[in-house]
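Q: Predict the assembly, please.
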Amino acid sequence: MKALILVGGYGTRLRPLTLSVPKPLVEFCNKPILLHQVEALVTAGVDHVVLAVSYMSELLEREMKLQEQRLGITISLSHEKEPLGTAGPLALAQELLNVDNEPFFVLNSDVICDFPFRDLLQFHRRHGGEGTIVVTRVEEPSKYGVVVYEAESGRICRFVEKPQVFVSNKINAGIYIFNPRVLSRIQLRPTSVEKEIFPVMAEEQQLFAMELQGFWMDIGQPKDFLTGMCMYLQSLRQHSPDRLHTAPGFIGNVLVDPTAVIGENCSIGPNVVIGAGVVLEDGVRIKRCTVLCGSRLRSHCWLDSCIVGWSSSVGQWVRMENATVLGEDVIVNDELYLNGANVLPHKSINESVPEPRIIM
Amino acid sequence: MTLCYGLVTSTQRITCYLLLRWSRVTRPGRANISGCCSREGRRCARVLQQSEKRSSTILSYAATLQSCTWLCGSSSFQMKTGLSSGPEFWRSCANTKTCSTGGTRFRPLSFEVPKPLFPVAGVPMLQHHIEACAKVPNMKEILLMGFYQPNEELNRFLLNAQQEFKISIRYLQEYAALGTGGGIYHFRDQIVSGSPEAFFVMNADVCSAFPLEEMLSFQKEHGEPNSFVILGTTANRKQSMNYGCIVENEETNEVLHYVEKPSTFVSDIINCGIYLFSPDIFQHIGGVFQKNQEEMLLEESTNGWHRAEAIRLEQDVFTALAGQGKLYVYKTLGFWSQIKSAGSAIYASRLYLNQYHKTHPERLATNKKGGPKISGNVYIHPTANIDPTATLGPNVSIGTGVTISAGVRVRESIVLHGANLQDHCCVLNSIVGWDSTVGKWARVEGTPSDPNPNDPLAKMDSETLFREGKLTPSITILGVCTVLLLSCKVCFIMTLLRNVCMFLIILVITEILCPQVVT
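A: Predicted assembly structure:
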């Protein structure tokens, strides 16, 4: 089986992290975002993953070569010269996808959930339509485009963009499975699969919806990245609690890489992810944070809702909160306060940032 | 008094009236009751006639008013110290201190102790004055004058200071706020008893190196022996207008012109609020008093709250003395600052701590094995309990019985007695009030309000707590008995306080981001 992942462009929403590393390789809960998806696809029987990228990155190519060997699959990069929207990449990768008349998966690269690929394939085969969309339930449907479908068969009736009155609370989760026939509907030009292809398929009664069980999050922005992290850790707690760290001083769901070093009198959690080679000195308080590889948090610092980029250093008695994101190799000097700061890579900070802003 | 009058409840007016009456009882012929002729005033008077109070009750009313005024901080509180000294040439010289303080600007700290007793660099603000006076050879006596009701704290301070400095110290309470000149004039008999040759008058709310002996020798060298000397210092052009400005004759240092807080630039030499007088000054103040009385007789329309005794040394006396060959200015290069707002106490503390290198090296903490890490100038009271993993300084004063736990960081702050700083907390540019608790990993941070460090002449801006309805970013102050604390789910306290000014009592604070007052 095959799968197409819509990786897209530079991942600007996840800056400053994506200034150093292509978005698919940013670690989410100690594993590159893309690998969460690829590994789930492999488990579901996919042996060829096509990445639709709009910019080429040596780092990504090299990493994908390694993963090809590790997972024993083929990973191709389909490079679009101009942005082709969400449908165009399918046309571009037509030759790769349309070889054996088998259905193929398509997914947005920002999405994190308990990927239901096996169930999706089963569901898709059973209804016999051209395509299936995974939908997820939201609390405030008026913010999104919602999907209206028949409860029993799952057949989609229509799509409503930002509904003013309640019609449905299910939205497109960015995970699809298509028969290769769908490719004939798409031309090689910038096209939106959601706006131009799906409505037509729904009208022809060829599109079905499957509701996602469990959590779902688009982790394309730092705030959502942290929310997604909390959800993922909670899911780990339910499905494989032994992967979470328990020790005195650890509170709630905490994921710690075995190579991390934790000092004395620290208080860690709930909802913390600590990457490889990270050093937490004595008396650190940290909650709802991701600390990426090779960073050092010095004594008595306090962090809440932050992402600490690779190889950064946070000084003593520093307080950071409110979705502060440090890029790669950032140094925060002692006793500072960062409130919602976005710090670009290789920056040394000497002054407090009391209000959210970008530090160039 | 006038400010009390500004508080418009009728009870306030009654108490004010009672005070007047009381003052007439004690000093017949001085108070002008008929001046109380507003409609409300007459009504109050009738109310009072109906319920004839005995004088003892009246006294207690007066006392109520004083404490109430003090709490409202609306009266210009006056406190004066007098000292006497007498080297061989001048048989004796008394020294008087005027401590004119608003009190409101010092909130919430002034709720607990009188401002002059607020600790700066580890000792009460006034003790720096007293130490300086005690060093002057043959200083005879120190008189403190104020409008405060004497309380236990003040009495204890006076007793301790007398023992420590082996000098007589007395507190003279004014019956009303009499202005900087009125106070010393009222107590002139006390000051001139023992016929001192000269005496100093100082405001309590200044912080200075107090070059008193230099002022004495300056007085000998310049002008006639009975001349008066003002301590002056140089300010920058813009800030000079917030102070009393002195124009001098550059050769003789005689004061040619004096103006208080001008609206345009007059001179960059400002009045430091420290004076050296000879008893002759009372003739000049007396002259103003006479003039005031005559004016009051002439002006029927006087509202009754104005009193002849209220005399401002600066506006009423210096302005008239300038250019008459009597008044001289001694310019000091030493440090000087006002202590008006609570924030300026941190700056004053820095100046005094720095001076301790010369005057009291024993008061400065040093890095010792098994002790906390000290950087820069730090005062730690011997009764404070500091964990060796804490880091303190620069410019930190730790009061009596303070507990500082593991991994605490304190910088540019004053921690008052009984406060408890728990593990890993960080206190920057703040004043932590009596018996406050700062929770684990809490951050208490203020905005430094020091004068511009790049301008050697810059002074502390006499900032107010509020500007345009907003709290001005300044030092964070945790008021009396403030408790920041606990009961977080995981029992860790991660409070953040920035630029907070807290007014009172037993508060549990969680998180405050922007400048605000918490009551």
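The longest helix of chain A spans residues 222-239. The radius of gyration of chain A is 21 Å.
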